[in-house]
Amino acid sequence: MKPVTGSTPRVVKTEQEWREQLGPEEYAVLRQAATERPFTGEYTDTKAEGVYECRACGAELFRSDTKFESHCGWPSFFDPADSDAVILREDHSMGMARTEVLCASCHSHLGHVFRGEGYPTPTDERYCINSIALRLLPES
Question: Which domains does the chain have, with CATH numbers?
Fold first, then answer.
């Protein structure tokens, strides 16, 4: 993964340490910017209330009250839990111009954000996030 300009991760591990901590599919998505297949992720249709954290480092990323049904095949949120929770960077891979979403704490790949798609959300943004990049901590 290319370094994110102007930002230093708070959680720093070698790629070998990440490989030892994460399963093969988790590593592929979080550290190599792969994408899980649509409609297969654990949280695609989850309606449970709670906090979604980064599966790699445990940083709080999104809250269930910003999750919405976009029917795109991945969990969708209209806003991160905190403005500093994620880093956005240009992504020109696969012949497209997109905006990649990274965990600000460990710089793991989470997914992409899309704007202006017409969803009835307060931000008109869709953070399209891989389920495997998240862990839900349900409210008790």
Answer: 15-138 (2.170.150.20)
